Amino acid sequence: MQWIHYASFFREFFRQPMQLGTFLPSSPFLERRVVRLAELEQADVAVELGAGVGGITSRALECLPKRSTLLAVELSPPLARVLRTWKDPRLIVHEGSAGEFRDVLKASELARPDVIISGIPLAVMPRRESASLLSEAWETLAPGGRLVIYQFRRDVERIAGFCGQPAAVEVEPLNIPPLRVYCWRKPAEVRTRLSARLLRTRVDGPVRTRDRSNDPRRRPLQAALASVRGGGRRHRPIHGVNAEGRSEEPSTARSSRDA
Ligand SMILES: C[S@@+](CC[C@H](N)C(=O)[O-])C[C@H]1O[C@@H](n2cnc3c(N)ncnc32)[C@H](O)[C@@H]1O
After folding, report:
1. Of 5, 126, 168, 226, which residue is least crowded by CB atoms under 10 Å?
2. Residue closest by Cα to atom 24 of ligand 1
3. Is 167 within the bounds of a domain?
């Protein structure tokens, strides 16, 4: 990152201190820790919420495979402008609120993300808003995906009950201020079961029921059903076809069959 990026962040902090949460962007130590926990080398789609001036963004792009996509969402227009200066065809910059990330994924026809990273200061957001953002992120994440959140305060531990599992937590002391990095991994079983079903459909074709209409064991049952249908008031009368191929009335049809 260049000094101009630090200056932009610093300036924006004086305009919106609560929104930024800190006056300095993440240190290279924090950037590396976040990216390592996110395992971006295996991601097709990644999302970064609160990308700032793009320190973690650029580090993430170093690790992402060539054909992957990174969606960076940033609320502050001056910081989003800085993000757009990172020229990489894999990067999509969305200037707006983090809560819009699902709409952007949909509009860009992107798959469910394998990684979601967030540095948004959750503690200063209304509790309901932060809880709904995190549960949406968790829900949207692909099976086996990673949700990585770096924070100064520990509120996220209480908010993140929706995950139903504890996070892996690391502390990065070489950052101002030192931060905790949380990583939740979504279980991969759903993907395994789904892919097994897809595989079976592709390899074996859809499951078909056996045609039992000629099974001699079913003839008494078929005869019984036919007589019930024939006698039932809700069913249409049976029209027969005579030897010349003309349609006969039900009574005639029955008598010609009996003959
Ligand atoms: C602590 S800074 C982290 C910046 C950057 N990721 C870094 O590591 O240096 C938090 C960032 O989140 C952004 N932010 C805060 N609330 C947001 C929201 N609701 N939606 C999107 N971005 C938000 C801030 O503007 C700020 O850039």
Report:
1. 126
2. 20
3. yes
Could you tell me if the CB of 21 is within 6 A of ligand 1?
A: yes
More confident residue, 222 or 98: 98
Cβ-contact 146, 37 below 8 angstroms:
yes
Tell me: do 146 and 246 sit in the same domain.
Answer: no
CB 118 within 8 A of CB 49: yes
**Structural domain boundaries enclosing 218:** 214-258
Residue with the bigger pLDDT between 215 and 159: it is 159
Which helix H or strand E contains 106, and what residues bound it? helix 101-107
Q: Assess whether the C-beta atom of 73 lies below 6 angstroms from ligand 1.
A: yes
**How many C-alpha atoms does 142 have within 13 Å on its Cβ side?**
18
Q: What is the pLDDT of residues 178-213, one digit of tens each?
A: 999 999 999 986 544 555 554 443 333 343 434 455
Question: Where residue 252 falls among pLDDT bands split at 50, 70, 90?
Answer: very low
Predicted model pTM = 0.75
Which residues, 6 or more positions from 214, have their beta carbon under 8 angstroms from its beta carbon? Answer: none
For ligand 1, atom 2, name the residue with the nearest CA.
20
Q: Is 119 in the pocket of ligand 1 (CB under 6 A)?
A: yes
Q: Indicate the top mutation candidate among 16, 74, 118 to test ligand 1's pocket, ranked by most ligand atoms within 8 A of CB.
A: 74
